[in-house]
Write a structure and sequence with these properties.
single chain, about 325 residues, mainly alpha, hpI Integrase, Chain A, three-stranded antiparallel β-sheet, 14 helices, about 55% helix, DNA integration, Integrase_SAM-like_N
Length: about 325
């Protein structure tokens, strides 16, 4: 199967400071020509714009920014009215590091002020929290709220869990990616975070929902292409965007009274269930499209599988020891 390489356009109107800075503009163009997804490219442009806005307010040129300047930028991020998650700050810092790394490669500056130190310590310590998954009560409330959704939304929810799909992978599905006869869906390289194509099975119940949705989809248009279509007046029959899908899930979560439920929750839940069912860590990593099993380990930990096995083994030994002690007392 040929590799599908797409160069996505940059929305320069959303990052005017980047567009006006020759170095930042050249760096962002390079990222576009690397074939990054439109969402990644958009995230890079927004992060670059944010960094350049800080440098402009402090009258600092990107070619002369020091490690102390980057530190002030990080402090400004954390001092904002809206508290940023550690993962968000890590993403913003990554863009700064990549940008300055590019300036070094071009010979514009001699060092990277955002790089790790010689000891390997990062500027911001990475906090790794276990992802949240709903308990049984939350899950039933989510299901009750989902019953009120359209057939398209219910099908998307089913696929998001069944195949453990990321938001972009779900919204980027094409009609040609589905093989109903074998109940297999194809996740294309350009829509994945790890740039790894994979083929995933889906259940019979998801297949039934898909069949009902396809009947409905034919009323919107007969042409093949994006699987999940928008039905809003503004974007009628256009592919549903990740932002629209996020809003749908947000409204569902509010109706269910489970505010922490998000587009990524079903992926977390799926992978945790696979770990709990005894899947090997490498099998889960392949299914999820993880580049590193270190990411997959989160779901092994979250399932409590290893701890449960150790607890069961420990309790069995303790029980046997107590029985032996009682037997000795009875003699």
């Amino acid at each position: 199967m040929p590799f599908e390489f797409t160069v996505h356009p940059i929305r320069w109107d959303r990052c005017p400071l980047v567009a006006s800075d020759p170095h930042a503009q050249a760096w962002l163009l390079l990222q576009s020509h690397r074939g990054l997804s439109s969402n990644t490219l958009d995230a890079y442009s927004r992060a670059s714009e944010r960094y350049l806005a800080f440098l402009k307010s402090a009258c600092i040129a990107s070619v002369s920014a020091t490690r102390a300047d980057v530190g002030l930028y990080l402090a400004a991020l954390q001092a904002g009215e809206v508290a940023l998650a550690n993962a968000t700050i890590q993403q913003l810092l990554t863009v700064v590091r990549l940008f300055h790394g590019y300036l070094m490669e071009e010979g514009t500056r001699s060092n990277n002020p955002a790089a790790q130190t010689g000891s390997g310590r990062a500027m911001v310590a990475r906090q790794q929290k276990l992802p949240w998954i709903p308990n049984e009560e939350d899950w039933h409330r989510i299901l009750a709220a989902a019953r009120q959704e359209s057939i398209r939304n219910r099908t998307m929810l089913a696929f998001a869990y069944d195949a453990g799909l990321r938001r972009e992978e779900l919204c980027s599905l094409q009609s040609s990616d589905i093989d109903p006869s074998r109940r297999i869906l194809r996740i294309r390289t350009e829509s994945t975070k790890g740039r790894r194509e994979r083929a995933l099975p889906y259940s019979a119940s998801s297949g039934e929902l898909l069949g009902r949705y396809l009947v409905h989809r034919r009323t919107l248009g007969s042409k093949r292409g994006p699987l999940f279509l928008s039905e809003s007046h503004r974007n009628y029959t256009e592919p549903i965007s990740i932002w629209s899908w996020s809003k749908i899930v947000l409204h569902l979560a509010r109706r269910a009274g489970v505010e922490r439920f998000s587009t990524h929750t079903l992926r977390h839940l799926c992978l945790t269930d696979l770990a709990h069912s005894g899947w090997d860590i490498h099998e889960i990593a392949t299914f999820a499209g993880h580049r590193s099993v270190q990411t997959t380990l989160l779901y092994i930990h979250l399932s409590g599988r290893d701890l449960s096995l150790k607890l069961a083994a420990g309790m069995a030994q303790l029980h046997a020891r107590r029985v032996q002690m009682l037997a000795e007392v009875a003699q």
